Amino acid sequence: MVNIVTFPQSPSDSQKKTQYMVDVGFGSQGPSQPLSLQEGTESSDARPLSMHLSYGPLPANEHEDSKLWRYEVKTSEVGKWAPMYCFTDLEFLPQDYEIMNFWTSTSPASWFTHKVVAARMLLDNKNGKEGIMVGTLTMGGLEVKRKVGVGETEVVASFGNERERVDALAKWFGIILSREEKEGIRGTETDLGDDV
């Protein structure tokens, strides 16, 4: 799910608008700042990762007039753009999001029902610059990994039971679970099978 935020370009002309795509939930390769909803606009926060938007039909589309926005990234200066996801600029209603979220969080075909995942952007607050993204911290499977800039991915924590996983969520992501939230994993595929 992305949000499209619209601003008038000038107070005197409400017909001219500037739009931005905002996505705070995609994960470590997602945009960490709003992207102008214009084809080819490029942004880069944590080099070498670059991101941009393109607009057009997907390769699988049978009709060339079926156009979508595509969020794409490349992981090196000379790399190729890799599509991450596509979206439309049609307005969605709350019930649309309810059904999309229900499927994502309950369907056996969704990988979110097979893994506990978390992502956090790492920021550099040095040199008077606040909020400059320098890397990512991710949890997937039984590990927490850190990647800074073009460096290697480093495993900073691993775990084999629920208590260790809950501790890793608190330590690395600042996520403190209530007793009820800790018990919510019981009986699911991702349950590591010990007391929390």
Write the layout of secondary structure elements.
Blueprint: E1 3-10, E2 13-22, E3 35-36, E4 42-43, E5 50-56, E6 68-74, E7 82-87, H1 94-106, E8 118-124, E9 132-140, E10 143-148, E11 154-158, H2 162-173, H3 179-183
Antiparallel strand pairs: 1-2, 2-3, 4-5, 5-6, 6-7, 8-9, 9-10, 10-11
Any key phrases for this structure?
15% helix; alpha+beta; 196 residues; four-stranded antiparallel sheet; 3 helices; globular
Structure description:
- This protein is of the alpha+beta class and 196 residues long.
- The chain has helices spanning 94-106, 162-173, 179-183; strands at residues 3-10, 13-22, 35-36, 42-43, 50-56, 68-74, 82-87, 118-124, 132-140, 143-148, 154-158.
- The two termini are 32 Å apart.
- The mean pLDDT is 84.
User: Order of SSEs, N→C?
Assistant: EEEEEEEHEEEEHH
Helix run count? 3
Largest sheet: 4 strands, antiparallel
What's the helical proportion of residues?
Answer: 10-25%
| Principal-axis shape | globular
Strand order of the largest sheet: 4-5-6-7
Could you tell me the radius of gyration in angstroms? Answer: 20 Å
First CA to last CA: what distance? 32 Å
What is the strand content? 35-45%
Mean pLDDT, to the nearest integer, reads 84
The total beta strand count reads 11
User: Stretches where pLDDT falls below 50 for ≥5 residues?
Assistant: none
SSE class: alpha+beta
